[in-house]
TrEMBL record:
<dbReference type="InterPro" id="IPR000700">
    <property type="entry name" value="PAS-assoc_C"/>
</dbReference>
<keyword id="KW-0418">Kinase</keyword>
<dbReference type="InterPro" id="IPR035965">
    <property type="entry name" value="PAS-like_dom_sf"/>
</dbReference>
<dbReference type="GO" id="GO:0000155">
    <property type="term" value="F:phosphorelay sensor kinase activity"/>
</dbReference>
<dbReference type="Pfam" id="PF02518">
    <property type="entry name" value="HATPase_c"/>
</dbReference>
<feature type="modified residue" description="4-aspartylphosphate">
    <location>
        <position position="57"/>
    </location>
</feature>
<feature type="domain" description="Histidine kinase">
    <location>
        <begin position="285"/>
        <end position="502"/>
    </location>
</feature>
<feature type="region of interest" description="Disordered">
    <location>
        <begin position="500"/>
        <end position="519"/>
    </location>
</feature>
<dbReference type="InterPro" id="IPR001610">
    <property type="entry name" value="PAC"/>
</dbReference>
<dbReference type="InterPro" id="IPR003661">
    <property type="entry name" value="HisK_dim/P_dom"/>
</dbReference>
<keyword id="KW-0902">Two-component regulatory system</keyword>
<dbReference type="InterPro" id="IPR003594">
    <property type="entry name" value="HATPase_dom"/>
</dbReference>
<dbReference type="Pfam" id="PF00072">
    <property type="entry name" value="Response_reg"/>
</dbReference>
<dbReference type="Pfam" id="PF00512">
    <property type="entry name" value="HisKA"/>
</dbReference>
<keyword id="KW-0808">Transferase</keyword>
<protein>
    <recommendedName>
        <fullName>histidine kinase</fullName>
        <ecNumber>2.7.13.3</ecNumber>
    </recommendedName>
</protein>
<feature type="compositionally biased region" description="Low complexity">
    <location>
        <begin position="500"/>
        <end position="516"/>
    </location>
</feature>
């Protein structure tokens, strides 16, 4: 059931009022009316019970049509006003319609009144609905503007028809893209010029055919900063399905992308460290076996040379064998450095001074087409590292950098103080050594393997592939870190972070030389390798030593228990099945506490110090070196 039409009737004549109401009702209109005759009554009715339509006479004793129109205007009400009068001419009626009246009906023609009322009510409803729509649109726009102006993401709208045009970028563009929205609106080329060239095509495609799927886009700000955004955009279409515009958001995901890249880098470094650790263990085992082989080769070559006078046929061949074995021993020592099994002699050093000395020696060999630059921080604290190994690191890296610049370039050595963050066991102050070149660089698959032993991109015969691997082992042995960054065509940088002297391990004590007893002592020789044991026995026997041989630690322990005869020294291999040479020496010294010990091996396990009255000789060794070390060991015990 519809509500009756609320009519405000401004009429002083009772008969006229009754005729107007009767006419409307006769024509089928359900009318509920309120009759007023004063301005106060009109104002009260408009305030308390706003009508649907106002019908007014032109002139009444205390009220006029102009006053009613003024009151409607003051109340800001859009209500149809219909003038019904028999005393007004057309000119006055037209004047009233110009100031707000909607129509004029003469009293002698009331048959027009109902159609006029119906028409004006319809038009008033249309205006009301339009106002509501406009109000809703205005409120929606206000909410959108409030949201857009305060949203952390960039909100944009790109129009395709009738012409391509950027219609809107929200204020967040200033924060994220570094550009005021007014600079982005208009020509799309201004926006697209900020997009990374590798991402521009995909962005343009997403605007031509939006799918709503996320799209990662890189933007370059005016200051050169790269910003990563994630775009989500949808299309706006007309009734015929034509794509009119694209609107969406750009979210700054730079922090997430950087965090992911950093996480991937850390995972890559962890995989590389694990791979290098495995390779180091493998290299250490290989080095031990090869040292035994080289010891036999070198020793027997030396014995054979001793038996051949100068000029004897075959002597030159033996000398070549001897030299090859010595070079093999040097190569194995580099493997041991990588494996961190090579004993170090760390000392407190001024890193800048070592760089200047090494650079002074190497500068002439770099060539005139290489610009050699040093950027040394004068405030560096000292570091503790084996000087010869540090010099070898500098030499290896500089030679690699020079080889990467066959057409010339710039080679830079820099030092600086850095602070490693608290996360991790190796946090604290560090001294950073950076060596950079402007050479050809490396692809990622090569850079990942740069620290692996025997890995090289040089032609055969131009390198062993042990330069960076030995540097890796040396730096790790000091508690430092070494890393490499490189891009094809952009050069390579090697960064080495070394702990300051206060954090490094102390240097192992040096053994002082003592007078020799000579070569008439009894030596307990323990070696599980038959070739090495037979060689050493011959070397010592030829020099007057009495040798008691044992093939294993258990046999050596039985000999020391079963034989009461004097044993002047224990000469033992370090790495043997079941028990190490150090453990064997400790057990024998329980009964013979003053027995001197000479350990022989390709290396000592990392971090192992030598007990008192204990010496070390590195395999492979010459007979002269063995005799000197044994005489020193026996002499120190007296």
């Amino acid at each position: 059931m519809t509500a009756p039409i609320r009519l405000l009737l401004c009429q002083d004549d009772d008969d006229d009022a009754a005729l107007i109401v009767a006419r409307l009702r006769r024509d089928g209109l359900d009318v509920a009316y309120e009759r007023v005759q004063t301005a106060e009554a009109v104002e009260s009715a408009l305030r308390l019970h706003p009508p649907d339509v106002v019908i007014s006479d032109y002139s009444m004793p205390v009220l006029t049509a102009e006053e009613v129109l003024r009151l409607l205007h003051d109340a800001a009400l859009d209500i149809p006003f219909i003038l019904v009068s028999g005393q007004i001419d057309d000119e006055r009626a037209a004047a009233l319609m110009r100031v707000g009246a909607h129509d004029f009906v003469r009293k002698d023609r009331l048959t027009r009144l109902t159609p006029v009322v119906q028409r004006e009510l319809r038009e008033a409803e249309v205006r009301r609905q339009r106002r509501q729509a406009q109000t809703a649109l205005s409120e929606s726009e206000q909410r959108f503007r409030l949201f857009a102006e305060n949203a952390p993401d960039v909100i944009f709208r790109y129009r395709l028809l009738p012409r391509a045009e950027v219609e809107y970028f929200s204020p967040a563009a200033l924060v994220i893209l570094g550009c005021h929205p007014d600079e982005l609106n208009g020509d799309p080329e201004r926006v697209l010029s900020m997009v990374d060239p590798d991402d521009r095509r995909s962005l343009e495609e997403s605007w031509r055919s939006p799918t709503g799927e996320p799209l990662v886009v890189r933007w370059r700000r005016a200051d050169g900063t790269v910003v990563w955004t994630e775009q989500r955009a949808v299309g706006i279409r007309d009734g015929r399905g034509r794509l009119l515009a694209v609107q969406g958001i750009l979210r700054d995901v730079t922090a997430q992308v950087n965090a992911r890249h950093e996480r991937e880098l850390l995972q890559q470094q962890l995989r590389q460290a694990e791979r290098l650790e495995s390779l180091g263990q493998l290299a250490g085992g290989v080095a031990h076996d090869f040292n035994n082989l080289l010891a036999v080769i070198l020793g027997h070559a030396e014995l054979a040379l001793d038996a051949l006078p100068a000029g004897t046929p075959g002597r030159a061949d033996l000398e070549c064998i001897q030299q090859a074995a010595e070079r093999g021993g040097a190569l194995i020592r580099q493997l041991l450095v990588f494996s961190r099994l090579e004993p170090s002699q760390p000392e407190v050093l001024d890193l800048n001074a070592v760089i200047e000395e090494t650079g002074h020696l190497l500068r002439p060999t770099l060539g005139e087409d290489i610009e050699f630059v040093t950027l040394l921080d004068p405030g560096l604290p000292p570091v503790r590292i084996d000087r010869s190994k540090l010099e070898q690191i500098l030499l290896n890296v500089l030679v690699n950098s020079r080889a990467a610049m066959p057409q010339g370039g710039r080679l830079t050595i820099a030092t600086a103080n850095v602070e490693v963050p608290e996360a991790g066991a190796d946090h604290g102050p560090r001294v950073r050594l950076s060596i950079s070149d402007t050479g050809c660089g490396m692809p990622p698959e090569v850079a990942e393997r740069a620290f692996e032993p025997f890995f090289t991109t040089k032609e055969q015969g131009q390198g062993t592939g042990l330069g960076l691997s030995t540097a890796y082992g040396t730096v790790k042995d000091t508690g430092g870190r070494i890393s490499l960054t490189s891009e094809p065509g952009s050069g390579t940088t090697v960064r080495i972070d070394l702990p300051t002297a206060g954090q490094a391990a102390p240097a192992p004590p040096n053994q002082a030389a003592s007078p020799s007893r000579g070569g008439d002592a009894t030596v307990l020789l323990v070696e599980d390798n038959d070739g090495v044991r037979g060689l050493v026995r011959r070397m010592l026997s030829r020099s007057g030593y009495r040798v008691i041989g044992a093939t294993a630690p258990a046999e050596a322990l039985w000999i020391t228990d079963a034989i009461d005869a004097r044993i002047d020294a224990l000469l033992t291999d370090v790495v043997m099945p079941g028990m190490s040479g150090l453990e064997l020496a400790g057990l024998i010294r329980r009964k013979r506490p003053t027995m001197p010990v000479l350990l022989m091996s390709g290396s000592l396990p990392g971090g192992v110090g030598l007990p008192p009255r204990t010496s070390f000789i590195r395999k492979p060794f010459t007979r002269a070196t063995l005799l000197d070390c044994l005489r020193d060991a026996v002499g120190n015990a007296t």
